[in-house]
Design goal:
It contains 36 helices and 2 strands. The protein has helices at about 5-10, 10-20, 35-50, 55-70, 75-85, 95-105, 110-115, 125-140, 140-155, 165-170, 175-190, 195-205, 210-220, 225-240, 245-255, 260-275, 280-290, 295-310, 315-320, 330-340, 345-360, 365-380, 380-395, 405-420, 420-430, 435-450, 455-465, 470-485, 490-500, 510-520, 525-535, 540-555, 555-570, 575-585, 590-605, 635-650; strands at about 610-615, 620-625. The chain binds one DNA strand of 10 nucleotides through helix 10, helix 12, helix 14, helix 16 and helix 18. One of its GO terms (molecular function) is RNA binding.
Length: about 650
DNA sequence: GTAGGGTTAG
């Protein structure tokens, strides 16, 4: 039993008794602990007690603050006993407040409550209420804080300027009208011009997206030289996706000479991260270096995120490498893992994950695992994915009734589906108590890519019956499923119903799926007509798809049209040239082939050879076209040939 | 009194 839980096990009643009978405090047992630890702590406490004999209320308060910082309820309790004996609590509301804060910060709210009265003979004053309200908010019970505030108001006790910031910190569980009411009272009492109250009000309004109210509070502040006030506005606009306003505030802040803090830097960086605005992100990095805030761990994490989301993996890595290994926190690791995955370095992401585990400093949490699972999926690393699943079970990260359930299970399902293990994906899916649209989408897509069109289709019907609204992604999966299974008329029907029945406007992705489906099925004219007539802009993907269908069905005329458009859209990309070249080779038009090769040389287009690979017992085996270098080449071929023949016999 | 990380398609 830990010292803190031992104290928590004393009932509130017994503590009240202790407060009134100071001598009894002396008999409270010392914390149980291993001998070496015990002797050190006990020596420290005795030492402190000796010093207290000569000390006053002020030193007690200072000690309590240290106890709170160190989460050391045991020493705090010793100080408590001493203060009771000396009668320090009787005439110093500040002393009571420090004591309450100490218990609250150590997570012992029941003790905090008992110290500040609550009994009939010992009424709580505004200081006591402030401490309790703040304690509830610190300990994640903002509703209790609100209740305490109402009780205080009902007793006719007026809040002071310290009440509002604490109370408003829990405003995310309130109604917007509560904030307005609190604001009204702060105004009446004249506290709304206090900069702490002001920034708390700005923050609360921003949480409810009431930007104009927040801006008004800010504009009416008599003194605006406080960074926190500005930071609140910058961060608020940023989080509400009003990046231009965030930047305007930031620029104005600079003009007015308000000093930047690490909070300003992270706030404004998050705007540039979402916008993937590398140039401005870099400027902020420069500013962070100038002001010295780049050494802050949160700033470093935000920089990793910014560079990564701008696809500058190397710069993200250099920030990560420059950090002190002991500073790197969970956020750092999660950011750097996510960024590797985002930039397509899936191998790097898995290697880093292994490094994180080996370092032993930071334990992966659910965010880490939900980041790494899709990476496993993309690499088809089923074994690693399974190990992570096992880790989650062993560490009790699953089966918890938390709000992240869908997130985690969706990542697991996706990993299994991408690795081709649809049975396990389905098992996870079936075990989920609540499913969101992503859960259904993952299964629909999973069945779709495995050419299990009917199963994908069934999933879709069940999803609709379960009352989950399909979204854009659902239809991408569904149309893909039709494509892979050759359900041409059904695919066409879904595209038409999307807008008419489900009120979802098809995007270029949806058209691309259908065009690809039509092309593969040999309906080249129809595919071409749709590409020309569709109400969205055409993309290289569309024409590459048509081009490869032309090759499949030997249509050189349409191929030339598609090839021309593809060249207009992306002259530097090799895909179009390769497709055209193969097509000309098959048609025996070797003159055009050499023309194409010249064009490629002129444009400096290079073709990276495609490869496939498989991982067996931690060994990676890679294969290129016409590559006979594998030591087991002969036996692989012996297995492969009958399979190829079998597939061909089914297809024809 | 203020700040940072995660799932589904293409």
């Amino acid at each position: 039993m830990t010292a803190a839980s031992k104290i928590e096990n004393l009932s509130v009643g017994s503590l009240r008794f202790l407060s009134r009978n100071p001598d009894f405090f002396a008999s409270v047992t010392k914390p149980p602990a291993p001998a070496s630890f015990y002797s050190t702590v006990s020596a420290q406490i005795e030492d402190q007690q000796k010093r207290f004999e000569y000390h006053n209320v002020a030193t007690c308060i200072a000690t309590l603050q240290r106890c709170a910082q160190r989460n050391d309820a045991v020493s705090g309790q010793q100080v408590h006993g001493f203060m009771v004996r000396k009668g320090f609590l009787d005439d110093s509301p500040r002393a009571v407040t420090s004591l309450v804060n100490m218990y609250a910060k150590c997570g012992l709210m029941r003790h905090a409550i008992s110290v500040t009265g609550g009994s009939e003979d010992h009424e709580r004053d505004v200081f006591g209420y402030n401490a309790i309200i703040s304690g509830f908010v610190i300990n994640g019970s903002p509703l209790d804080a609100m209740e305490t505030y109402r009780e205080m108001r009902a007793k006719g006790i007026f809040p002071d300027k310290y009440t509002f910031p604490s109370l408003l910190k829990g405003s995310h569980v309130m109604e917007a009208s509560d904030v307005t009411k609190i604001h009204g009272l702060a105004f009446k009492l004249g506290f709304d011009s206090d900069c702490y109250v002001g920034s708390a009000l700005v923050n609360s309004y921003l949480k409810f997206r009431l930007m104009e109210d927040a801006q008004k509070v800010f504009d009416e502040m008599p003194e605006r030289d406080d960074s926190v006030l500005w930071n609140a506005l910058v961060i608020g606009y940023s989080q509400n996706f009003r990046f231009e306003d965030a930047l305007k505030v930031f620029v104005k802040m600079r003009e007015e000479g308000v000093s930047l803090t690490r909070h300003t830097v992270t706030g404004v960086l998050s705007a540039f991260t979402v916008l993937a605005d590398l140039d401005n992100g870099r400027s902020i990095h420069g500013l962070a270096v100038k002001t010295g805030s780049d050494s802050d761990i949160v700033v470093s994490n935000a920089l990793i995120d910014m560079y990564g989301k701008s696809k500058c993996l190397e710069e993200a890595i250099s920030i990560f490498e420059a950090m002190d290994e002991r500073e790197r926190d969970l956020f750092t690791w999660n950011s750097v893992l996510c960024v590797h995955d985002y930039c397509g370095d899936h191998d790097g992401a898995l290697a880093l994950f292994q490094k994180m585990l080996r370092s032993g400093r930071i334990r992966p949490d659910l965010v880490t695992l939900t980041t790494v699972l899709p990476t496993c999926g993309r690499l088809a690393a089923l074994q690693q994915g399974r190990e992570i699943h096992g880790y989650m079970i062993v560490n009790g990260l699953l089966n918890r009734n938390n709000s992240n359930d869908e997130f985690i299970n969706n990542s697991l399902m996706d990993m299994y589906a991408k690795c081709g293990d649809l049975r396990d994906a389905q098992t996870v899916f079936d075990s989920m108590r609540s499913k969101d649209s992503a859960s259904w989408n993952i299964m629909i897509n999973g069945y779709g890519v495995q050419s299990c069109g009917e199963l994908a289709w069934d999933m879709f019907s069940t999803m609709c019956k379960a009352g989950v609204k399909p979204d854009e992604i659902t239809f991408v999966g569904l149309l893909q499923a039709c494509n892979h299974s050759g359900f041409v008329s059904q695919g066409r029907k879904f595209l038409e119903e999307m807008e008419r029945v489900y009120k979802i406007v098809p995007t270029s992705d949806h058209y691309t799926c259908v065009i690809d489906m039509l092309g593969r099925a040999g309906k080249l004219e129809e595919a071409y007509e749709l590409a020309v007539a569709m109400p969205v802009e055409d993309s290289p993907v569309v024409w590459r798809s048509i081009l490869s269908s032309c090759r499949l069905h030997g249509n050189t005329e349409l191929a030339q049209v598609a090839g021309k458009r593809l060249y207009e859209l992306e002259p530097e990309h090799c895909g179009g040239y390769v497709l055209m070249s193969n097509l000309y080779v098959e048609a025996g038009r070797y003159e055009q082939v050499s023309e194409l090769r010249d064009a490629m040389r002129q444009q400096n287009v290079k073709k990276t050879p495609g490869s496939s690979w498989i991982e067996i017992k931690n060994d990676l085996h890679v294969f290129f076209t016409d590559d006979k270098t594998h030591p087991e080449y002969e036996s692989i071929l012996a297995c492969l040939s009958p399979l190829t023949h079998h597939i061909m016999s089914i297809c024809h």
